[in-house]
Amino acid sequence: MQKDQQQTAIIQPLDATDTVESSVDALAQGEAENAEVAEFNRLMRERETRKKKRVVHRIIAVAVVAVLIIGFMVVHAIITPSDGGVSPVSTATVERGHFVDQVSSTGSIEPINSTVVAPQIDGTIGEVKVQEGATVNAGDVLFTINNDKLDSDVNQADLALRAANSNLNAAQQQVNQINATIGQARNQDGEEGQAVADDAAGQLPAAQSGVESAQVAVQQAQATYDEAVAQANKRTVTAPVSGTVLTMSAVPGAAIGASSDGSSTSAGADGKPLCQIADLSQMKVNVNINELDITKVAKDQSAKVTFSAVPGLTLDAKVDTIASTTSQLADSSAGGQSGNGGVGYAVRLIIPAPDPKLKPGMTASVKITMQSIDNALMVPLAAIVDEGKESSAVMLETNAETHEFKRVRVTVKAKNNTKAVVEGNVSKGDVIMLDGASAADNTGDAASSTSQTAASDERAR
């Protein structure tokens, strides 16, 4: 019995240890199971997320395909003809009338010749005789200049001239007196008379030299006087040419100062010329013509000129000069068809009979007629089919009900930006296809496709 008790006492500690170990194993096993469950749940969540993304992507793809299908159906419905499968085409009719090829540009009108009046002395403006816009003749007084010094110079020169003339008279009288003495002495007999004559003759060269010197002094004094008078006369400023006074900036009392080269200033206080006169019986227009059109412009070609400042006024003009060198065109409205920026050539046109309402500097719009044909057979430029080697054609309608067309060769005699003059088997009123080049290409493609299909069928048989 004691032995059993001892065994029991020994077994009890062993049971406690096993229990602890079992608990630890169970706990570890539980944690492992929990980790597996968590990992499983994470994997399930990721799979669910991927599944949702695939569904979304499929929905988007289906929507895109649906939009493309709908769009294709709409476009197809729009471009598919409703009249038996025949595509509608744009047409035009052959016309007969006046053909003109023109190039347009803009510039400003200016007088052909103008003269700036520049006073040649300094001083202050006295009286102004004319105003801007007045018509003057050569020699008419424009204005006067006050300069008291010029009067003083004239008076002094006059006194000097008088003194020189007085000296000349005195010298001449001396010579005359000596000559008279010589003559009287030679009329006397004897040696005494001869001695007097000889003595007087000895004085004569000096007296004659005095005359010559006095004559030179008179000439110099006369030149000084003439210069003083001429300078004084410049106080009255006259028109050097006939014409219209474009500018008159002279104001009474305004000072005019001489420049370093001795000439007077020619500009008023506002910077404009003091006075400018121009011949407005003819005027000019300077324009720039694009290099693409300049080869068709020639001297004496006619043109029409209009003016934004004078609505309704149209004047005739002619090409006068064409520049041989290029100029850079400004990208502005001042170039018309030729003002697109790039290389151009200066062209001057003359207006032989300008309107009195026109003023220099006004904007002028020019249309130069490069070619003009009366009673011309014309088609739209878009209807011309270029066949190469200077050969052209049009697509002529042969059946108005079925809209059938055939290619008809024509000769293009002239063309502008919109129309072409043609000769050939077409008449006024004929219906032709616009964009005939595309139609001709499509006709060629269709014929080629038909030939290829027939060849394929033949090989199949």
Automatic annotation (TrEMBL):
Keywords assigned by UniProt, alphabetized: Coiled coil, Membrane, Transmembrane, Transmembrane helix
Pfam families linked to this entry: Beta-barrel_YknX (PF25990)
Gene3D superfamilies noted in UniProt: 2.40.30.170, 2.40.420.20, 2.40.50.100
Location of region: Disordered: 438-461
Coiled coil: 154-231
GO cellular component term of the entry, any: efflux pump complex
Compositionally biased region (Low complexity): 446-455
Domain YknX-like beta-barrel: 283-368
Chain segments annotated as transmembrane: 55-79
InterPro entries in the record: Beta-barrel_YknX, RND_pump_MFP
MF GO annotations: efflux transmembrane transporter activity
Family note: Belongs to the membrane fusion protein (MFP) (TC 8.A.1) family.
Name used for this protein in its record: YknX-like beta-barrel domain-containing protein
Protein source organism: Bifidobacterium longum subsp. suis
